[in-house]
Design goal:
Strand order of the largest sheet: 1-2-3
CATH class: Alpha Beta
Low-confidence stretches: none
Mean pLDDT: 82
Strand content: 15-25%
Largest sheet: 3 strands, mixed
Number of domains: 1
Length: 116
Amino acid sequence: MAGLSYAATVAGPAPKVQQDSQIQHSIETKFAKSKINAEHFIVNVHAGVATIEGKTGVIQHKGVATRLAKSGGASSVKNHIQVSEEAKAKARARLTGKQGQTEVARAMVLPRAGIK
């Protein structure tokens, strides 16, 4: 038994570089299997921190990329993905409820005078 514990102590933890490359590979694999694969984001991992760069025309892909990186083993994520102005405009329109809608007149119903 003493020999086993000594061997484990000598071996020690895996080097950070190897861990980073494993995390990076895990994240890239997750990206490849997801719908954001077409975006071709670039991932780099250093000391467990994933940095993601690239451009997208779908605003939701930025958040998905962060979640996938965290689930891939990153301790934290620096998301530098740039979202296109068109995608931002679509998101604003959705949030304000004006996407493809026309203005609707609103009326207030007031009680008639003399009715109780």
